[in-house]
């Protein structure tokens, strides 16, 4: 039991001094290390603070630069959007002009076709492929060509309007995204350490696959701007083309319309002149017919007037043929009576002029009938050209849209 309760070991005083010195040295060393750590920590904290402030300042600067970039492109996109919207509105008015011009061509074409159809009702020799018909056919071709050209131009205009609206849509979508991005960056620029709703966000620094680079970002908006400029320039060129087409087609139609009207006026004058000549000839034939009828009546009267003398002469000869015996003498009386009968008979036989006169009268009658028919033909032609066609063409008005 005594062994179990041994006294603790005893140390030498020198050991005690050494132990105290070691404790002091160890404490001093720990203190020095702690002081150095405090100093390093303070330096590190100061450096971190400066770095954080510098980084925050740089981030704020970058955010501001980004905001300015977004504002710049937003302004550019807005300008292009206004331009393409304005251009599309103007092009729509040109589309309306094209539609009105196209619609205005339909009535003249119908009138031309009616004129050609009406002129087929001309009769006889007047059913001729004259200058009027040639010009009418040409006018129909001009109108059909103009209608085809306007329809193609209208299709081109509709396509350009579609392209303008597509460019407008791209600009609007880009602007919408820029507006959202600017709002987000404005919010980011407003955040401070004391902002209530700041928080930790897990995976905030993770780069997703749908991120694009700055160059791609600029290229995207630049492409939209270039497309808008291209379509605007195309639209401007198309408007200039439409202006030229509308002006040229109106001039072409107006010119050909006048050519047809001049041809109609000339043809009507020709037909009226021909009708007047026919009427003059008809009057002359009718006068000649009256003269021939008088001539025939005179010839018939002359023949009738010779019946008495010939009967008298023949009766005398018949009576004297009954003289008896030697009295049946061929005396001067007999000679003269015979001569008289022969003379009258010969004169009557010469009256075959009556047959010729009657033949001429029939010829004059046929000529009168022919002239009257031809005058009716001319009257029919004048009615068709002057009344039906020319009056119908008065409603044609070529407007420059």
TrEMBL record:
Location comes to: Cytoplasm, Cytoskeleton, Cilium axoneme; Cytoplasm, Cytoskeleton, Flagellum axoneme
- Principal location class: cytoplasm
Q: Keywords, A to Z?
A: Cell projection, Cilium, Coiled coil, Cytoplasm, Cytoskeleton, Flagellum
Taking the record's annotation, the residue ranges forming a coiled coil are 31-83, 354-381
Transmembrane segments in this chain: where? Answer: none
Q: Which GO terms describe its cellular component?
A: axoneme; microtubule cytoskeleton; nucleus
One GO biological process term = cilium assembly
InterPro entries the UniProt entry points to = Tektin-like (IPR048256), Tektins (IPR000435)
Give the family, as the similarity comment puts it: Belongs to the tektin family.
What this chain does, per the record? Microtubule inner protein (MIP) part of the dynein-decorated doublet microtubules (DMTs) in cilia and flagellar axoneme. Forms filamentous polymers in the walls of ciliary and flagellar microtubules.
Q: How does it assemble?
A: Microtubule inner protein component of sperm flagellar doublet microtubules.
By what name is this protein known? Tektin
Species assigned in the record: Himantopus himantopus (Black-winged stilt)
- Give the lineage: Eukaryota, Metazoa, Chordata, Craniata, Vertebrata
Write the gene name.
Tekt1
């Amino acid at each position: 039991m005594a062994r179990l309760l041994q006294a603790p070991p005893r140390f030498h005083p020198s050991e005690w001094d050494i132990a105290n010195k070691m404790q002091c040295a160890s404490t001093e060393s720990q203190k020095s290390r702690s002081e150095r750590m405090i100093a390093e920590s303070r330096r590190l904290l100061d450096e971190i603070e400066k770095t954080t402030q510098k980084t925050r300042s740089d981030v704020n600067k970058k955010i501001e630069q980004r905001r300015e970039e977004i504002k710049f492109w937003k302004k550019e996109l807005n300008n292009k959007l206004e331009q393409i919207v304005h251009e599309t509105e103007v092009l729509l008015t040109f589309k309306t002009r094209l539609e009105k011009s196209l619609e205005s061509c339909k009535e003249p074409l119908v009138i031309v076709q009616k004129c050609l159809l009406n002129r087929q009702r001309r009769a006889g020799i007047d059913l001729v492929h004259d200058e009027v018909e040639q010009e009418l056919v040409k006018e129909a071709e001009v109108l059909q060509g103009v209608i085809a050209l306007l329809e193609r131009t209208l299709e081109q205009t509709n396509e350009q309007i579609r392209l303008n609206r597509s460019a407008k849509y791209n600009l609007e979508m880009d602007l919408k995204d820029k507006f959202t991005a600017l709002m987000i960056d404005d919010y980011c620029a407003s955040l401070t350490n004391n902002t209530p709703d700041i928080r930790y966000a897990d995976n905030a620094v993770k780069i997703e696959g749908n991120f694009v680079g700055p160059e791609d970002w600029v290229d995207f908006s630049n492409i939209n701007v270039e497309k808008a400029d291209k379509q605007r320039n195309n639209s401007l060129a198309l408007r200039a083309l439409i202006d030229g087409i509308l002006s040229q087609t109106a001039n072409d139609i107006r010119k050909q319309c006048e050519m047809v009207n001049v041809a109609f006026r000339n043809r009507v004058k020709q037909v009226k002149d021909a009708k007047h000549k026919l009427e003059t000839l008809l009057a002359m034939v009718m006068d000649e017919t009256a003269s021939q009828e008088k001539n025939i009546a005179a010839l018939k009267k002359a023949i009738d007037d010779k019946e008495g003398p010939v009967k008298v002469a023949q009766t005398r000869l018949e009576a004297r043929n009954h003289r008896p015996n030697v009295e049946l003498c061929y005396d001067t009386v007999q000679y003269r009576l015979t001569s008289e009968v022969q003379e009258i008979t010969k004169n009557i036989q010469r009256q075959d002029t009556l047959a010729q006169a009657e033949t001429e009268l029939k010829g004059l009658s046929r000529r009168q009938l022919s002239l009257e028919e031809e005058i009716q033909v001319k009257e029919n032609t004048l009615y068709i050209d002057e009344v039906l066609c020319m009056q119908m063409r008065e409603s044609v008005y070529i407007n420059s849209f």
